[in-house]
Amino acid sequence: MADSRLSESIVLRSVQDVGRFINTRPQSRGSVLIVLIALGGVFVDAYDFTSLGIGVVQLKAQFHLSPLEIGSVTAMMAFGAFLGALWGGYFTDKVGRLRMFLVDLLFLVVAAIGAALSVNLLMLLAFRFLMGIGVGLDFPVALSFIAEFVAEKRKGGSVNLWQIMWYVAASCTGLVVLPFYLAGAGSDLWRIAVGFGAIPAFIILLLRIRFMNESALWAAQNVGLEEAGRIIERTYGVSVTVDPANAAAAKSRAIAPKLNFREIFTPTYRLRTTLISIICATQSMEYFAIGFNLPAISTRLFGTDFIFAILGAILFNLFGILGAGVAVRVTWRLGVRYITAIGYALVIVALVSLYLGGPQMSLTATALLIGLFIFGHSFGPGAQGMTMAALSFPTRIRGIGTGWGQSMVRIGSIFGFYFFPVLVAAIGFRSMTLVLVLVPLVGLLATILIPWEPVGHDPDLTDEMSLSTGD
């Protein structure tokens, strides 16, 4: 989407010129719209992941599911997302951001409808797996695109917007099913919650077709400067001239570079990949141990009627929106690593306090501590793991790096889906909170010990130049 107010001319002589141009662009209404459309897939992802939690009681009764089968239904999407993230990141770098933007939403539309119409457990598992594939595909492409579209000073905050989208979507799950619950939907409530995800997915698909272009940075490296120039003209409304002396050379270098998963573990990227892996896995474990079970926790706190599961989950998700919103505002000033450490510390305080308070703690205090947990998580590691992944690698392998981070998120979520419900059944919710403290503690120690900060570091202008000169 071009902004008619911008009318300057630029000359492109190298791929680095494309990066420098993007990194100095002022924010416009058009650019904000593009970011929101890119993040629209994250909204759908989060809705699809959390929608089943609101109706798991009805699902269990309708299909007569055992606890293991319930765990399989919830974890199946995470298995699909793990594979989708690994391969989605690879193909995001291989075929471009725009094509993957459209493919992943087709997965989500079909899978949501199929899951809602499932007549048995096997069918539901198949479509939940397909839905996970779509979710796994979308995260690497969405965050990679934003990291390549937004100016340097707004990259961290703009990528962090994905966490706000997550909690808004989680809240919308309850808002969507509430009128159907009040109307007496009963045992079909879970079908409505899951199937509704096809509607926003289809809308976002249409918006992406209408408004989005390929990443100019990806095009410059994989197609040529002339194509990058055309994308910049359409997107930013400027006149672009490509220096003919450099265009041919740039195009000759922009031929389907070989992609290798192992590159993110080479000495240049090894430490940052390790930190990203730990943050992504631990934040996912802590979230799915508590956050995914917010409807069940709400019924314990506020009342057993299903209305309390819906309203309580919405209430707690508001803390997530607040924490993510604060993180967006301070990312450039504080940096991703420092924010992550603060978030882990808040989560630890909340969990230890829940354990020490025990059943004697008042309802208000318990609810506020769970709110503090959600706030600290969304402010810190919940947002920053994937943000760090999107900002830590150059365009050439950004999809692979971001996909790897998302795959670590899914490893953590699979562990959380299976292990922590079993732990709660064995030792109770209170004791589980004390065991869970070990997870953010590991993340906090890693964040302190590994000194990597992506904010203010453009890997396209530093890492790539160092590699090309052999430094």
Radius of gyration: 22 Å
- State the fourth-level CATH superfamily: MFS general substrate transporter like domains
Please tell me the overall pLDDT: 84
Q: Strand order, biggest sheet?
A: 1-2
Just name the CATH architecture: Up-down Bundle
Indicate how many domains the architecture comprises. Answer: 1
Strand content: under 5%
Description:
This protein is mostly helical and 471 residues long. It has one domain (13-469): Growth Hormone, Chain: A (Up-down Bundle), CATH 1.20.1250. The chain is built from 22 helices and two strands. The protein has a two-stranded parallel sheet.
Task: Briefly summarize what is shown.
The protein is mainly alpha-helical. Helices cover 79% and strands 2% of the residues.
Distinctive features:
mainly alpha, Growth Hormone, Chain: A, 2 strands, disordered N terminus
SSE layout and pairing:
Elements: E1 9-12, H1 15-23, H2 29-54, H3 56-63, H4 67-95, H5 97-116, H6 121-149, H7 152-182, H8 189-195, H9 198-211, H10 216-222, H11 225-236, E2 239-242, H12 244-253, H13 270-290, H14 294-302, H15 306-334, H16 336-357, H17 363-379, H18 381-391, H19 395-427, H20 429-436, H21 438-449, H22 463-469
Parallel strand pairs: 1-2
Helix pairs in contact: 2-5, 2-6, 2-7, 2-9, 4-5, 4-6, 4-19, 5-6, 5-8, 5-9, 6-7, 6-18, 6-19, 7-8, 7-15, 7-18, 10-11, 13-18, 13-19, 13-21, 14-15, 15-16, 15-17, 16-17, 16-18, 16-20, 16-21, 17-18, 18-19, 19-20
